[in-house]
Design brief:
Blueprint lengths: L11 E2 L23 E3 L3 E3 L2 E3 L3 E4 L5 E3 L4 E13 L2 E5 L7 H7 L12 E8 L4 E8 L9 E2 L4 E5 L10 E7 L5 E2 L13 E2 L10 H18 L3 H4 L2 H13 L9 H13 L6 E2 L11 E3 L1 E6 L2 E7 L10 E5 L2 E2 H6 L14 H7 L18 E6 L4 E8 L8 H10 L11 E5 L4 E6 L6 H12 L5 E5 L8 H9 L13 E4 L25 E2 L6 E4 L19 E6 L6 H11 L4 E4 L8 E11 L6 E10 L18 E2 L4 H4 L9 H11 L11 H4 L4 H5 L1 H22 L1
Parallel strand pairs: 25-26, 26-30, 30-31, 31-34
Antiparallel strand pairs: 1-15, 2-5, 3-4, 5-13, 6-12, 7-8, 7-9, 7-11, 9-10, 10-12, 10-13, 13-14, 16-33, 17-23, 18-19, 19-20, 20-21, 20-22, 22-23, 24-25, 27-29, 27-33, 28-29, 32-33
Helix pairs in contact: 2-4, 10-11
């Protein structure tokens, strides 16, 4: 599910009021640019500042046309709550706009009159034109090209503030920042660009502690997986101890971020995220001349700048007197984008340990140096140098770089690749599950045309995406229902009236967030069961079916949908996973909807996931608590793989999978889930989930304390 990050306007810088040349058509056919504007930027609407949009009025039978050339980037049914938030529904490209509107029921007591269709058009310059308030008998699908003047539909009612049909028009740049929506139409603009955010520096102790209290409230009120890490009472004591470490004023940027990183590293979650500091700081901008890697329990010099090239490849025993293994563990305090006790993501990230060379020494003397001791006892002092690459661009860099981006999406069009590797093996690279309708159709056509006995599906470095795309692809890989996974649910902490959302950029505190969720007797939170997000049942596609063997390549950066995809196949004995543990949890992950919480004083902003998605509650040796999906055929991370073999061009994991196919290795002779899936008595069935919960808390609690001892 895609999200739009809304901006809070703190201050403004006025732009010159000049009338630019018109580069876009007015969206209402046969009307002059500027006709029937109901509200423009810097005017108030329902006591709220309209910062980014033009609202245009018209008649229900007026035609709406595309203002410019581009393609449909996204399309959905929408209900605009207010200027800062909207509800979005799915869109079926086989149906007309009106049919989609009639098929959508937000079930929140909303006036159906204001349910409409919103289209985002990606323009040639990389910007994005958003048009809400459409209806009619036209049909669209994502990826479809449109030209200036093409009919989009007719007027609908875009926003409840207006009693007449209306359009809502906004424009954003390639970087996601809001742009002037008036200038492209040749209008004298009332738009003003947002100014730079400002804050006190150094910031008083009480304000920094207040921010920590807001973050604490956000975890308690929004984050449903908190208890998987520690009981809430323990968490309050934990946060109080963190507040006590703030004893003097400090920069609310980098020094304060060190404290925030400490918190996040104690609650690792592949969907919990701290955004880049919105207020740019000066920073040291200094880096060491060494780029070290931790791999195969060894710290070594991977890359170096020109002054220290002779040290490349040497084994390091100590850094600043700290034993190599302990030094590498410093990284754990700066990286948190993995779920719970997952090991592979940290291992893969530590190959790139050198990227954190500056951050890992934050707070030390600005003239700091690395005292590097090698395995032979020799030493070298490496100064931190400003604006200097910690390595030279060469063969080693090329090898490591291309290893780190294997199967990674590089452009909007680079989403999948299907090719034949041999007479018996096909290869499908899935680089994201955010495929638009056109791309998905192409991927399905490729799959439909595959008649080879073995299929390798690569989801390495795939950060996830649309669960509907995931389900569609899975449905083409089975000839019977895949439904062995048990107990799937969505869970949230609170239904609505969440006070901490007053600090949110994308939701308001009075919004009824999860009205369809219901309580469960004896359990905390509110639940939905058997939703599409939990993949509770995958039914076979009636038209496309690949029946051969399926091997899925995974690594520590296979997140979200890229964890669910192989998990469904493995759980249903329809495929095997090859490589390394996935970066998101097998049993559950926290995702789907996110609140962007901005701390009131430091302005540091966090993405807090609000929905816990449980895929399967079955705990076995194959699927232990607190881990990602473990591979059926593991490939330990080695320097040989990182360097891409002897020739620097070998995909070692892919070759490993090909060797398994050549040897005829596939499903294990015995079903690892057979005992768990055996019929159970009613009394035993009742304790499955409570037992899982207790095991989860104990396992993750042990993991937490092991990390703290390190």
């Amino acid at each position: 599910m895609r999200r739009t990050v809304m901006l809070i306007v703190i201050s403004f810088i006025a732009l010159p009021q000049a009338v630019p040349a018109q580069s876009m058509l007015w969206p209402v056919a046969d009307k002059e640019a500027g006709t029937d504007i109901l509200c423009k930027p810097q005017e108030y609407l329902e006591q709220k500042l309209n910062f980014e949009s033009i609202f245009i009025g018209g008649a229900e039978d007026d035609w709406i046309v595309s203002p410019a050339d581009g393609f449909i980037q996204s399309i959905g049914v929408v209900y605009i709550n207010d200027l800062n938030s909207s509800l979005f529904g799915s869109f079926d490209p086989a149906k007309t706009l009106d049919e989609n509107i009639r098929a959508t029921d937000f079930k929140r007591g909303l006036d159906p009159k204001y349910v409409n269709v919103s289209i985002a058009i990606a323009l040639k310059d990389g910007s994005r034109l958003n048009i809400s308030g459409l209806s009619g008998d036209t049909r669209f699908k994502t990826g479809q090209k449109v030209c200036a003047g093409d009919t989009l539909g007719r007027f609908a009612y875009s926003y409840k503030a207006f009693k007449e049909p209306s359009l809502k028009i906004s424009l954003s740049g390639r970087d996601g920042k809001v742009l002037d929506p008036m200038a492209p139409f040749g209008l004298e603009s009332s738009f003003v660009a947002p100014g730079k955010l400002t804050r006190e520096n150094p910031m008083p102790v009480e304000k920094l502690r207040e921010d920590l209290t807001v973050l604490e409230a956000a975890f308690c009120e929004l984050y449903p997986s908190l208890e998987a890490h520690m009981p809430e009472a323990t968490f309050h004591a934990y946060m109080d101890s963190i507040r006590q470490t703030v004893t003097e004023p400090m920069d609310p940027g980098s020094p304060f971020m060190t404290i925030l990183y400490r918190i996040l590293s104690d609650f690792p979650d592949s969907h919990l995220y701290r955004y880049k500091d919105p207020v740019p700081g000066v920073g040291s901008g200094k880096f060491p001349g060494f780029y070290m890697m931790w791999c195969e329990d060894t710290l070594s010099v991977l890359l170096a700048n020109e002054a220290y090239t002779k040290y490349e490849g040497r084994t390091v025993s100590r850094v600043n007197g700290i034993p190599a293994e302990k030094y590498a563990r410093r990284f754990d305090s700066f990286f948190y984008l993995y779920d719970m006790g997952i090991e592979s993501t940290l291992a893969e990230e530590k190959v790139l340990l050198g990227q954190k060379g500056s951050a890992m020494h934050f707070g030390e003397d600005k003239e700091r140096k690395l005292d590097v001791e090698f395995s032979d006892g020799s030493h070298v002092l490496i100064p931190f140098q400003k604006g200097t690459r910690p390595y030279k661009i060469g063969e080693t860099y090329r090898r490591v770089f291309f290893w780190s981006v294997l199967n990674k999406k590089r452009s909007e069009d680079d989403v999948f690749e299907m090719k034949q590797l041999s007479d018996s093996v096909a290869y499908l690279a899935l680089r994201t599950f955010d495929l638009n309708d056109v791309q998905l159709e192409a991927a399905l056509d490729s799959l439909a045309g595959c008649d080879l006995p073995n299929l390798i599906v690569d989801v390495r470095n795939n950060s996830g995406g649309d669960v509907k795309v995931l389900m569609k692809l899975l449905s083409c890989l089975t000839d019977s229902p895949m439904e062995r996974q048990k107990g799937g649910y969505n869970r949230v902490k609170n239904q609505g009236g969440i006070d901490v959302l007053r600090h949110s950029l994308n939701y308001s505190a009075d919004i009824d967030m999860f009205p369809e969720y219901v309580p469960r007797k004896g359990e905390d939170g509110y639940f939905l069961t058997d939703t599409i997000e939990t993949c509770s049942a995958v039914m076979p596609d009636p038209e496309i079916h690949y029946g051969g063997r399926v091997y899925v390549l995974t690594n520590g950066h296979s997140y979200s949908a890229s964890t669910l995809f192989p998990s469904v196949l493995v759980r249903n004995r329809r495929g095997v996973s090859v490589g390394r543990e996935t970066g998101s949890g097998y049993h559950f992950m926290t995702a789907l909807k996110y609140a962007d919480i901005r701390l009131p004083n430091s302005l540091q902003t966090f993405q807090i996931p609000m929905v816990q998605l449980a895929f399967d509650t079955t705990v076995t040796a194959r699927t232990p608590v607190g881990r990602g999906l473990l591979p059926d055929y593991p490939l330990p991370l080695t320097r040989y793989e990182v360097m891409q073999g002897e020739d620097g061009q070998t995909d070692v994991m892919l070759d490993f999978c090909l060797s398994l196919i050549a040897e005829g290795k596939y499903l294990s002779p015995e079903d690892p889930f057979s005992e768990a899936d055996a019929p159970k008595t009613e009394s035993n069935t009742r304790i499955i989930w409570p037992a899982f919960s207790i095991l989860a808390v104990l396992a993750l609690g042990a993991f937490y304390f092991i990390r703290k001892r390190r």
